[in-house]
Amino acid sequence: MDMRAWLTELSDGPVGLRPLRVRDARAWREVRIRNDAWLSPWEATLPGGPVLDAGTGGYSALARALLRETKHGQSLPWVVTYDGEFAGQLTIGGIVWGSACGGQAGYWVDERFAGRGVIPTALALAVDHSFRSVGLHRIEANIRPENTKSRRVVEKLGFREEGLRRRYLHINGRWCDHLCYAITVEDAPNGILGRWHSVQAQLPAHRGEPQNGH
User: Fold this and answer.
1) In 72-174, which ranges are continuous DSSP H helix?
2) Separation of alpha carbons 213 and 210, rounded Å
3) Element spanning 10, H or E
4) What does the alpha-carbon distance between residue 100 and residue 42 come to, in Å, rounded to a whole number?
5) Quick one: which of 210, 212, 112, 120 has its CA closest to 172?
6) Which phi and psi angles does 2 have, rounded to 5°?
7) Which of 5, 71, 119, 197 is deepest in the core (most CB within 10 A)?
8) For all residues of the chain together, what is the average pLDDT?
9) 74 Cβ partners below 8 Å, 6+ apart?
10) CA distances (Å), 129 to each of 23, 31, 91, 104, 125, in order?
């Protein structure tokens, strides 16, 4: 299944999602290097291997791999933007079809944009699109227990906690436990962006946001 037609631009106010592009390498590299201390504690790593290469070559390889997955119906990778500026990345990946029809959300945001509702808005846009247009039934977000800011985001969007996954992902050089959160189409018959707007209206300005989805 080729899902490139579903990898479309989405927006709500200043927050946008646009398809990931190989030519984003320079902007991606600048943001990743500047945010190294902000992101590295939550960075996925390969057992026995290095952390993600922050150079343009590392990004280009990553982008091409994600776009290949998109072509084969396994991934929806977006750039997160704020007022048109590169602000992070969000992917609905690990997509399986058949009797499951589900995927997993992963994301990170530039520290400069933390506290502006960027990631919860982007995640709400991506989930609603994945349910309504792509045809997914369930989306998970697996988050380290100590990443309380990221946990609050998915909880506010209506994701439910489903349990602990022991040593689930290799993060920043070690195997880490993750809490599994999930949401299904039945949980959000009217979408979750409207739910997030209602929550957002009740929040003080400039609360912290998660560094990424792990």
Assistant:
1) 118-129, 148-156
2) 7
3) strand 10-12
4) 28
5) 212
6) -90, 115
7) 119
8) 90
9) 93, 94, 95
10) 24, 26, 12, 14, 6
- CA 78 to the chain's CA centroid: 9
Q: Give bridge partners of residue 17 from the DSSP assignment.
A: 10, 80
Return d(Cα 209, Cα 147) in angstroms, integer. 10
Distance between start and end Cα atoms, the chain = 28
List the chain domain ranges. 4-200
Report the length, in residues, of the chain. Answer: 214
Look up the pTM and report it: 0.90
- For the stretch 85-104, pLDDT in tens is 999 999 999 999 999 999 99
pLDDT, tens only, 39-87: 888 888 888 765 555 555 678 888 999 999 999 999 999 999 999 999 9
What tokens does 104 get?
């997993």
Identify the pLDDT of residue 200.
Answer: 84
- DSSP H or E run through 38: helix 36-39
| Predicted pLDDT at 50 | 56
For 81, the enclosing helix (H) or strand (E) is strand 76-82
In the structure encoding, which two tokens stand for residue 112, read together? 């400069």
Q: Strand 85-96: give its sheet, edge to edge.
A: 10-12, 15-19, 76-82, 85-96, 102-109, 138-143, 174-184, 160-171
Distance CA 123, CA 188 (A): 13
Listed residue (14, 19, 15) closest to 4, CA to CA: 19
User: What is the fold, at CATH topology level, of the domain defined by 4-200?
Assistant: Aminopeptidase (3.40.630)
Q: Quick one: pLDDT at residue 213? A: 66
